[in-house]
């Protein structure tokens, strides 16, 4: 059975406990054995025994950060095959940890609409050949539209386009919404949706997330004899 560490908490404005209830449904459907933690000190131990670490943490407006040892434990575990799956505020967490964001593949910069919430926008699936996007259609969101700084080595699965309504110079520019990437032997999956539980309950978002969890987990891929490619 796939063994999962689910780390969630941080800023209450991202509804971590309500979203945890949503995530438990996906874990149950995937038949994952899940250990939950709301304490970043969980990362102070050896993490290589987990097949997947799910990061539902956001601390953009709080003070928690990763210690050097926590950062090393996380990166070492993923390098040896533990997967990572994360969404939304995980890209705004642990701002001082450059290696954490290197692992994740991106960094939240801004949502140009600012306090004009919710912001309606469209998400376009740009890679329909990947298993994570199988059966996922383009969809609309009314939430925070993230502007991301991202690693050019990501395999981008979905994008959003900015209207320029709030920052005219962004009109027509596109930013990644979902991607996968490799870190050593481990796979990483991230998408930027999830400010509220309602965002994640949209059927296409739910499917994208569930398939991303399955893709990233070590056990889900252990039956393949093919060597994992850094090209994902």
Describe the structure.
The chain is an alpha/beta fold. It has six helices and eleven strands. It has helices spanning 16-29, 68-79, 98-104, 197-201, 203-216, 218-221, and strands spanning 3-10, 33-37, 52-58, 83-87, 106-110, 119-125, 139-143, 147-150, 155-161, 174-183, 186-191. It has a nine-stranded mixed beta sheet with strand order 2-1-3-4-11-10-9-6-7, with helices on both faces. Helix 1 (16-29) links the parallel strand 1 (3-10) and strand 2 (33-37). It is globular and about 45 Å long.
Note the gap between the termini: 23 Å
Separate helix tally: 6
Output mean pLDDT: 88
The whole-angstrom Rg is 16 Å
- Number of DSSP strand runs: 11
The portion of residues assigned to helices is: 10-25%
Strand order of the largest sheet: 2-1-3-4-11-10-9-6-7
The description of the largest β-sheet is: 9 strands, mixed
Runs in which pLDDT lies below 50 for 5 or more consecutive residues are 220-230
* Strand proportion: 25-35%
Order of helices and strands: EHEEHEHEEEEEEEHHH
Structural class: alpha/beta
In short:
This protein has 232 residues and is α/β, with parallel strands linked by helices. 24% of the residues lie in helices and 30% in strands. The chain is built from 6 helices and 11 strands.
Topology, element by element:
Layout: E1 3-10, H1 16-29, E2 33-37, E3 52-58, H2 68-79, E4 83-87, H3 98-104, E5 106-110, E6 119-125, E7 139-143, E8 147-150, E9 155-161, E10 174-183, E11 186-191, H4 197-201, H5 203-216, H6 218-221
Parallel strand pairs: 1-2, 1-3, 3-4, 4-11
Antiparallel strand pairs: 5-8, 6-7, 6-9, 9-10, 10-11
